[in-house]
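Give me the 3D structure for histidine kinase.
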Amino acid sequence: MKLAGHYNKASIIVSVSVLITGAIIYFFVINYIARRQFDSDLSEEVSEVLAYINYRHHLPTRTDFDEDEATFVKTGLKKMDTYFFDTVYYNTKQKRIEDRRAVKGLLRYNNQNYLFTISVSKESTEYLIQIITLITLALMTLLLIILFITNRYILNDLWKPFYYTLNKIKLFNISDDSELQFQTNKVDEFREMNSAVAEMSIRAKTDFHNLKSFTENASHEMLTPLAVITAKLDTLIQDERLNAEQLTHINDIYASINKSTRLNQSLLLLVKIDNSLIKDDEVFNLQEAVNEKIQQFQELMQSKNISVTTHLQDRVITASKYLTDILLNNLFSNAVRHNNINGQLHIILSSSQFIIKNTGDITPLDNNSVFDRFLKGKNSQGTGLGLTLVKSICLYYKFNITYSFKNSMHAFIIDLPVATTNN
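Predicted structure for histidine kinase (423 residues):
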C-alpha cells in the first residue's frame, strides 16, 4: 500500500472515530438539555397548579391542562419529596402509547393531602432529536466523502515532486557524466531530500570514476611487467644450454604468466560489464555466431572424439558481438574441457532459448555457487571466472541463465528476451 493510502486509512479511521464519539456525546447532551427543559416546564406547571388552588379554592379539572395529563389522589402520606421521572401513557385520542416526562409530589387542599402527578408529552422533542440526529449523520457522511476526495487529490498533487525524484533515481546511471537535476520545490522536506540525493549522486560518480581509473591503470601496469617477463622468457628459452628440467620450469612460468594475463583481462572485463561501460550493441543473427564458435572448437572436439548434435534456428538479437563472443566462448570452452573422451555435446538454439549440454562428471554442480567467482572444477587450468563472466553478460542483457543436471548431462540454459519486430 502506498503512503497516501496509509495516510487516508489512518485519517478516515481517526475522523470516523472522532465523529462517532462526538455524535454520541451530542445525542446525550441534547437529551440532557431536553430533560432539563421538561423538568423546568413541569416545575412551572406545579407552581401554576398551587397558584390555581389558592386563587380558585378547588383542584384543577382535566380541561385546565391542554395536552398535559394531571391526576390528584387523596393520600395519607404526610411527607414526600417531589421528583421527576419518565413514563408512558396511552393516548386515547390517537390510540397509541407515547413517552412522557412526569412529576409527582404532595399538595394540601382543604386539610387533605393529595398525591399529584402531572405529565407532558416528549413526542415533539423526540422527533426533533431524530431530525437533528439524521442531519448530523448526513453531515458526517458528507464530511467523510469530502475528506476522502480532498486527501486523495491533494496528496497526489503533494507527492508529485517525490515521484519525480524517485523516477530520476531509477534512471540514474553512474557512468553518465550529467548531474541529476530536480524541480524547484517549496516543501522543505522535498528540498532537503533532493539536495541529499544530488550530493550522494556526485559522491557516487566521483568514487566510480576513481575506481574506474584505478582499475584501468592497475590492469595496464600489471600487463606491462607481464609482457616484459614474457619477452625475457622468449629470449631465455632460446638458450641451447638449458636442460629438460629447466625447460619444464620455464614452461610452468609461461603458463602462470598466461593465466595471470587472462585473469587480469577477465577482472577488467567484469568491471566494465558491471558498470555498463561497453556500449557497442548491434543487431545480428545469433545462429551465425554459434556456428562460427562450433567451427573454432571443431579441432578440440575432434581430439576428444566428442559427438556434436545441433538444432539451430535463426534468432536475431541486439547485443555486443564482443560480449556475445566471450559468452559463447566460455560456454563452449567449459562444455569441451570438462567433457569426457567419446562424450556428447548438444547445442540447441530456438526463438526463446539457447541451450548447451555436455557429458562429464557424474556429480551435478552446486546450483547456489556454480556462477561464483574463482570456482573451478577438478584439475581445471582456467581462471575460475568463465561462468562468472557468462552470468554477468546475461544479467547485463537481462537474459536469465540457469544450470541443470539431467540424464547424466550438464546443461546451461539461457532464456532469450521476447523477439520484437526490431530484433
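The mean pLDDT is 82. Let me know if you want a second pass.
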